[in-house]
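Appendix B. Chain record.
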Amino acid sequence: MTQTHENHPGALPEFSGEVALDRLAELATEFGAEHIASTARSVAERVAEGRFYVACIGQFKRGKSTLLNALIGHSVLPTAVVPVTAVPTIIRYGERLAARVRFKSAAWTDIPVTAVEEYVSEGKNPENAKGVAGVEIFVPSPLLKTGMCFVDTPGIGSVFAGNTAATQAFIPHIDAAIVVVGTDPPLSGDELQLVEAISQDVHELVFVLNKADRANAAERGAAVEFSRRVLETRLKRTVPRIFEVSALDRLEQKETDWDWGQLVRALEDLVLNSGRSLVRQATERGIRRAANQLLAVIKEERNALERPLEESEKRLVRLRKTLGESEVRMRDLGVLLTAEQQRLSGVFVERRNAFLKLAQASANTELTERLSSLAPSRNGPAYRRNVNHLAQEVAGKQLKPWLESEAAFAEEEFRKAAKRFVELANEFLHRLGETDMPGLEELPEDLGSDQGLRVRSQFYFNVIERVAAPASPLLLVWDLLLGGLGVRGGIVCDAQEFLDELLEVNSSRVQSDVDERLRESRKKLETEIKGVLREASAIADRALARARAVQAAGAAGIKTAVERLDVVEVEVRAVIKT
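Structure tokens predicted for this chain:
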């Protein structure tokens, strides 16, 4: 691609493709907007190489990472039963398996493919605490050889707030998408919103129902029909097919192929029929986005140059007053919510006691019934082990649904408490916006009102060390002796006590787990909101410092700076029209 110039004064250069993106990156660097420059260069690089991004999107636990592993024929992405992807991960063609990572404000660094999990998984990099800006994995997959790149995105609806934000932030870079739905539920509200947002700029969408092996034909049919009807209504377009596949079956090379062949052919057709246009559209979107961001920077600079310093000082005083009020209100609300937390802790204790009272009676009845069907044995220690295992089963059966109900109760209570924080924070964000202070555009306009628990459950069923063997050598001898005589009453009594202990210990741990999740989630939300307010203060300080520096340059310096802004603005607008 070329850049041409007219041979007369005042002519504007004509830009195309990556040349335009490179020029926008240069101008962004001139104004200190390195985040704009970095994004523009990244888009220019992939456009020059003819690469386009096909993002795999959907709710967490849809099996997106497993699906991509199956499509490329290599298990390079971490998979688990909990949300694992913390940052968008790009899978592109390479002659051999390789990987690299880039941290914010740093260059790419090669890493072993086996180390990818350290940077992209929620377990090893929770909520992207390591500050990873990008991860790329190179694989020798024929499907990717002609420019298509897969993107594994963090799951929408994850309990980790950063995950959803990371996926939302990646939307402008998506050229096509694989939308993964399920059977339970087929589609969530968050998924619909994401697909709707993507579809505004992206036409090529491939729909997949994964984990087809986990539902019968009627369940799959109902899920596909529901998903198609809802998607067509929201997107206002036809959804020709939803492919039913089992990525896990494919990876394990099981005979059941479902719609796998048709899905692969659909992706191959995407490359063949739409690859070039997708690259062109990526170029146009990248130029438009970088140019509009740069125009906003130019506007800020001009405001700082033209506004009297006294006015900027007054605006900063008003802003500081608003921020001070917000801090006081946040502290007051924090005290109230701490009291609410203590009240809920008491509620959890009451709920646990009520559960325990019912569960112990029900569990002991079930244990007695199931013991009657247990094969008699003259091996006393073996019989004790079997009975204790049975007690664990019964206890687990009682505890699992209760854990789920307690988590749902805590989730609802947290949403109520979080709503009060978020409403207050949004009130101040709106007031900050009304101050028209340059730079506040970097803050979010609004914080999501629907805030779920931010901390995942750490509960695991405590089996207690009593199953493998009797507690003492004396009891072992006693079991051997009475077992030989066919006397098992003592073992049964011990098992019933063991069952009560299991329920006591584990119900207490459930109560503590839920209470701690609620407590830590509230702290996280408070920290995030206060962070937004602190950032607003920092932005105001930077804006005032810029205004002071400009004013210190005097009238001549201001005139020169404004003229330069005028020239750059004309050039940027010309790039958009090219």
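Further analysis of this model is presented in Appendix C.
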